Amino acid sequence: MYFDVDVSGEYILSTWHPxxxxxxxxxxxxxVEILNDEGIRINKETIKKDSSVSFISWHSIKKFLFIAWINxxxxxxxxxxxxxxxxxxxxxRIKCYKWSPNSNKLITIDIDNKLVLWKIDRRGRIFSLYQNxxxxxISQCMFHPIINIRKTRDNDENISFFLGGNNGIIYYxxxxxxxxxxxxxxxxxxxxxxxxxxxIILAITEDMSLYEYEFRKDGKLxxxxxxxxxxxxxxxxxxxxxxWVGIGLLxxxxxxxxxxxxNLNTEENYNITSxxxxxxxxxxxxxxxxxxxxxxxxxxxxxxxxxLWKCNIKRNTFNECTYSWEYxxxxxxxxxxxxxxxxxxxxxxxxxxxxxxxxxxxxxxxxDINKDKIVYQIGSGKLLITHLDGNNSxxxxxSNKIKGVSISxxxxxxxxxxxxxxxxxxxxxxxxxxxxxxxxxxxxxNDQDLYIADGLKIDICNFQGTVKQSLVxxxxxxxxxxxxxxxxxxVVGTTNKCLKIIDTSKREAKILYTKTFxxxxxxxxxxxxxxxxxxxISFMNSSSVNDNKLYVYDNEKAxxxxxxxxxxxxxxxxxxxxxxxxxxxxxxxxAINSNDHEFQSxxxxxxxxxxxxxxxxxxxKILTHSRIPLDNxxxxxxxxxxxxxxxxxxxxxxxxxxxxxxxxxxxxxxGIDCNDSTIIKxxxxxxYYITIGNLDEAFKSVHMIKNKEVWENMAKMSIKTxxxxxxxxxxxxxxxxxxVQALNELSSDESNDVKLATxxxxxxxxxxxxxxxxxxxxxxxxxxxxxxxxxxxxAIDIVTNYNKINIKPTYYNYGKYLEEMxxxxxxxxxxxxxGNSNFEIPRIYLxxxxxxxKLKEYVxxxxxxxxxxxxxxxxxxxxxxxxxxxxxxxxxxxxxxxxVLCSSGKLNEAIxxxxxxxxxxxxFHIGRQYENQRNxxxxxxxxxxxxxxxxxxxxxxDYKLETDLMQLALKSTPELMIDVAxxxxxxxxxxxxxxxxxxxxxxxxxxxxxxxxxxxxxLLGDILMNLDENLDISTLRKCIDYFLEKKxxxxxxxxxxxxxxxxxxxxxxxAHNVIxxxxxxxxxxxxxxxxxNKEINxxxxxxxLQQKSFHLACKKFxxxxxxxxxxxxxxxxxxxxxxxxxxxxxxxxxxEIFILAGNYLQTLDWRNNSSITKNIIQFxxxxxxxxxxxxxxxxxxxxxxxxxxxxxEAVKALxxxxxxxxxxKDMGDTSKSINVERYTSNIDKRIGLINQFIKAKECGKxxxxxxxxxxxxxxxxxxxxxxxxxIGDIYALMIESxxxxxxxxxxxxxxxxxxxxxxxxxFTYYLDSRIIQKLDxxxxxxxxxxxxxxxxxEQVTED
Length: 1359
Known about the structure:
Layout: E1 2-7, E2 14-16, E3 22-26, E4 32-36, E5 53-58, E6 64-69, E7 74-78, E8 83-87, E9 94-99, E10 105-110, E11 114-120, E12 126-133, E13 138-144, H1 149-152, E14 160-165, E15 169-173, E16 179-184, E17 189-195, E18 200-205, E19 209-215, E20 221-228, E21 241-246, E22 249-253, E23 258-263, E24 268-273, E25 285-291, E26 296-301, E27 305-315, E28 321-332, E29 339-343, E30 348-353, E31 356-362, E32 367-370, E33 373-379, E34 382-387, E35 393-397, E36 404-407, E37 411-415, E38 419-425, E39 430-437, E40 442-445, E41 450-454, E42 457-461, E43 467-472, E44 480-486, E45 489-494, E46 498-503, E47 510-516, E48 526-530, E49 536-540, E50 549-554, E51 559-564, E52 570-577, E53 584-591, E54 610-616, E55 622-629, E56 634-639, E57 642-649, E58 658-665, H2 677-692, H3 695-702, H4 708-720, H5 724-734, H6 737-745, H7 752-762, H8 766-776, H9 779-789, H10 792-802, H11 807-820, H12 824-834, H13 837-848, H14 852-861, H15 865-877, H16 881-890, H17 894-903, H18 907-917, H19 920-932, H20 936-945, H21 949-958, H22 962-971, ...
Antiparallel strand pairs: 1-31, 2-3, 3-4, 5-6, 6-7, 7-8, 9-10, 10-11, 11-12, 13-14, 14-15, 15-16, 17-18, 18-19, 19-20, 21-22, 22-23, 23-24, 25-26, 26-27, 27-28, 29-30, 30-31, 32-33, 33-34, 34-35, 36-37, 37-38, 38-39, 40-41, 41-42, 42-43, 44-45, 45-46, 46-47, 48-49, 49-50, 50-51, 52-53, 53-54, ...
Protein name: WD40 repeat-like protein
Keywords: Cell projection, Cilium, Repeat, TPR repeat, WD repeat
InterPro entries: Beta-prop_IFT140_1st (IPR056154), Beta-prop_IFT140_2nd (IPR056155), TPR-like_helical_dom_sf (IPR011990), TPR_IF140/IFT172/WDR19 (IPR056168), TPR_IF140_C (IPR056156), TPR_rpt (IPR019734), WD40/YVTN_repeat-like_dom_sf (IPR015943), WD40_repeat_dom_sf (IPR036322)
């Protein structure tokens, strides 16, 4: 029901505040006014400039009004302190603007295509963040992505946005204000939209093409689809209205007789048309607006009509979301509708035509409850007070529009936004006690005081309006948005999520507690309610925020709890605390648009609101007790055991409907004496304890109640709460033996849901049983349930989709049902689908309908082979052989057709049919016929074709057909082969064939006996190579001896292995040098005796080692766990790659392996292979053989000196050796301490001598000859035998230095001494031949001859 308000005055622009019931309008003189929801101006100061207005728009949360003036000036009007903030960056008219999702940012674009991004702070001040002058014509902007307002309202969130215009280019501006060309549609862009669910960007062009884009991280848009929309007749596409009307639903209003709806989820489109389209009064839709809170679409026409449609959402059996539009209301204005806008949280609709405004508001009925009294609105300006204990009623009339009501034990307050009327009442009379002027809408009353909240202040007044006390809150606590009083407590909620608890029991009210809920995600504390004892305080979030939670604050524990109705696809809209049971919270909820609905068997186009009963558990949880539908009533409150709501009578016309009080008993309380307070108390406790799961206390509460209906109600309640244990006990107390028996007959493996569903059926709770079967996924029982109810379509759907194994039984039962109902044609179709057509359908035609002709007609038209076979058998019984043969062939029962042909004497036709059909049964029938005719060859042939070899073999034996007999035996079974083998052995004496058949028939022992007995040695060899292990020992021994005699040792070894005589096999390999292959070695395996198996493999490994099969020996040693021997075997192979691999794999388990590998690698050319050097160091390190590493580094030092004369690298190597020697000391091995010290001392001595020589060389380079000579002379006096220092290098250094400094005599003297100390053949290693030639040419031939001789010996050695 909607009421209308005509707003006086002429207005150019208008806009609702999205959160508050206030409207901003502009007048012809350029002034801006603020109106309330009754069209009355509320701003005292005029908002005006020397310019007209181009745009006005409200902030989404705060009372900040954005005003764009024609001259380009931007203003933000702050309604809190009536301050106008201005900025003049734009120099020309604004043509486009866009708020960010949380309204902290604003984009404006003027006609010069200058873009400015603004920031609006909490005080309404405006700052420029970004500016850009575009050359292109920009007309569209869209923020991306959508950000949750609640999470970012206090944060300066990162934003990015898209821009579009007439050149078709879509620009993307990222959070760093970098402008990127995302894509180009090459057509003027009419609108940009974001399909948030799928993350798709939509661009609609002026030729009504819709482009779908996927956003990439680099800012580019990737086209994924393109659709062509229907274009309207209106040439001015800029006047089109394009907006979302649901999840994935895009509506286009283009001035035509319909509104186009495009479903992007399914890519379908359809039209919404006027209800009077076909009445001859055609009209065009001009503007539309969608109410997201209530899913209502409003559309205005050129005839002044405004139509409302409700969008209903449901899901089909495939869980697909479908939408339907239900026409619900019509409104009327004077002229063509120019604009439409929803406001007032979706309760008000603003329409503009010409320069007139019309307000349409949904008529809300107000009510309140206080313990045993209820007040509710029954009409415009009319209320009714009802005493619940005696049903006495008193009416109240008021001339003003009611905007709220509050009732206490004796007083009632009614307000309309202008005055508050306070009255005192009793059971029979009511009198006014005070009228107070106040524009507040946040009011509450008790029997002592009247509480009026406005802004930050709450006034505590008497009933005549005298303020007894004022409590003023802090600015950072926010404005008061909700109050409630109970049990000498006043609770207050603010817009900044602050809760105050005030004690009103004393003369002066005192704030007991202030709680700010920073730890929960709420916008403000609204819809505040307090339990009648004051222990629990409940509240909801702001209605402007998509929050479907209900919050409860425990005043004693200081704990906040919540229940999220989104999990149930519901949204809370109203709630009350029960006036009798403070633990019970009753909430009215409505369905929300969600993609997560569960499968429901009963789908409806619309869903009514529900009542949910909630309890607060001791462990601080909000638990659901039960749910009941509200049946389109308006919920008021509850007092156990009743729920009270307002019900419309004569609901066909909202304006003439009558409002009455509807009293409904709560679930679980029917059948009891509601006047017995003791029983009510017990039931209250039972409901509470059963909800929180305390079974013992629940039964303590009701164990004395003997009412059968009570126990039945408790059983039903237990079904809803899924308490199988409680339901079972309730059945016993009800005396329902049938239900108990059905429960006991269920298997113990059945789930609790199935058992509960079984009980629910016997309690008449069919809907609950259906839901329980679905939740348990017990589709077989659900199908049986539907069958028992006669809902065959549902039963068939269930088995078809979820329980295919029961499809045929279900169709069979359905056929039986239809047959009983006399619907024989439908029954026949059901029998066909059940797979029982070959019996049931003939029975119906012959026994029920008694019409053979119809049966014959059905068979002729049927493609079912089973029915063809049945009809053929029926005809055969009637001796109608031709008909029988015809339908046997149709049924592909060739053998039966051949049988009929044979019995009717048509053998040739039967043979022809059998040969073409390739049917074994048919061939068998032909074979019998030939056998009867003594045509043995043909009989054997057809018996063989039919694979009836026993018949064919019997005939071949009887008629001595040995050739055919052998061929048949080879095709037959092992039993028949052995039978024929005996025939060849005993009768025909063809022993080769007998041996072959015995072997094929798996009687190998017999075949071998015959081989030895009749000296068939060629066959013996072939058989033995495929022997199995089940051969008897004596026969096997005989075969081995035979092969040993023939010196065929490989076959003898093969038989030894097959017989498990592994030791003999190995001995034979050694004795006759039979090489053991890897395949042969793998068969030496005794799985039954692990110890023997180990011994065998050890012997086998040693044998392989003797045969130089080193890799195989390594494998066998590894298998028995002797990895050290395995490594030694592998070392013998010299396979470096495998040695390194084996060391890396097995070394961690046995350190000696690392040492062996390192020792081996030292024998290789490690000097020229860095990889080998690296592995040597790595293996010795892993094996902790530090002495070996030290020796290796000493070898490296010796190589550096001998081969490369690189003494620096030699020192490095000796230092490394010393480092590893010291690690031996760190290991704590005292036995090696003395050797380590000695070893370290020797290395230090070598390093010292070498360093002296290095120093001498450096002195020579620096031309410090004297010091160099002193060092060299000192070194020559040392014992250099174990120092790695070559005496030849020392003399060479002295000779070269003397020569280069012109001391030839000294050099010759030194050369003479060197000849005595160093062999002549090594001279060229130390001295250049040119130096030798210069100092002593006489020895040069001897040096060169020694070199030539040495080269000759090396060449000989290589050859």
